[in-house]
What we know:
By secondary structure, the chain is mainly beta. It has one helix at residues 2-21, and strands spanning 24-39, 47-58, 62-71, 74-78, 81-101, 104-121, 124-141, 147-158, 163-176. The radius of gyration is 18 Å and the shape is elongated. The relative contact order is 0.20.
Amino acid sequence: MNKKIFVLGALATLLMSSAQAGEYMPYVGFDYVNMTPNVNDKMPDNYDIGSFNAGIKFVDLGSVELFAERSMREKETINGTVARGRLYGYGADLLMNAYNMSEGAVLASVGYGRMSTKLKYNGHAEKDTGNSLRLGLGGELNPTPEWGLRAMYRYSLSDSDAYKNAKEFSLGVRYYFY
Length: 178
């Protein structure tokens, strides 16, 4: 609950400061994410994820971004047992422009995610949900004012029983309503 209050407070602060400046752009985007979680011994250890994003970019400051993501169903054979796993979740990230260039920026991010796992093996089904703190570093190129190409690396810490941390690499595109 404290994490949700923190994210909402940070979002409200950014909205109030930007409203005075009047320089912001809403956007939508899609990312391909490759996640390697530190998982328990029953789950597949690599996931391909699609992530839909919507946010507000505050010129020269950074962005507030909401995301919803879902992985493909991954399959792994462990000691003759076939396990099928899936990850899905949602959350919010604050992205700060660490260094601005005329047609892009170096980005640093911190965020909150609510991630769930589904696992099926030997006729058993398990589901687990946990909170995660997401820390990231990346960059975005803007070939036009409307389009952005983004690459990010994130490290997540989770309180989930299924996994405790994860490494993510994402490539995506953003469309800004300029």
